[in-house]
Structure formats: structure tokens, C-alpha cells
Amino acid sequence: xxxYHMNLSVSRVQELLDFLVxxxxxxxxNGVIVRTEKNTHVEASSLLAIRHxxxxxxxxxxxxxxxxxxxxAFTSPVTLSTKDIPKIRKILLDAISDIAKTxxxxxxxxxxxxxxxxIKM
Length: 121
Description:
The protein is mostly helical.
């Protein structure tokens, strides 16, 4: 099912699942691969962070061609007061925290992408 959904070969998906299980990120429960409580995070200061963001942004651009009414994309360059920049950043951080709590408690039956940028130009 994963191979079909992701348009990958069964052997590649098996290789990836074996890797995730070997690293403790997933486990096999009665023949079903499920995630564990273990997570990964690339710190903003890591040299890998830029590549991580680039990879996901590129994937998001690909996904835009397949978007449906149920999906959401939002891009909005804005002008605002200097004092409101940190206020918007806090709103976004609070939303990210709420999303993380929801995802943590959610069963793994779907995959989605979330990318948020808040950058002073």
C-alpha cells in the first residue's frame, strides 16, 4: 500500500521501513508498521537544516500540482509594523506547538506536509 501510494518500488519501501524500524522510529506490530514515540529533529543551527528545508519545499512544489479542495496552500508577502513581527512569530510557534500535540496523539494512517516560513525581508 505504501509503495503504491508513494509511487515507489516495494523493495525501496521495504528498505526504508527496515531502516526506520532499526533506528527505533517505527516498530512492527502484528505485521503492521507503526511509529514509536521516538522522533527526529534537525536543529536550526545544524548544517543539515538548510538541506532539510530545501528538500521539503521542493516536494511541496511537486505536491501543488496534485492539490484538491481539501488541501491548503498559503503564500502572503505582507507589510506590517516592526513591533508586530515578534507577535506573528509567537502566534505561529503556538500553532506549531498545538499541531505537534495533535500529531503526537494521532494514529498514523495518513501522511501530510506542513511548511511554514516567517522571514523578515
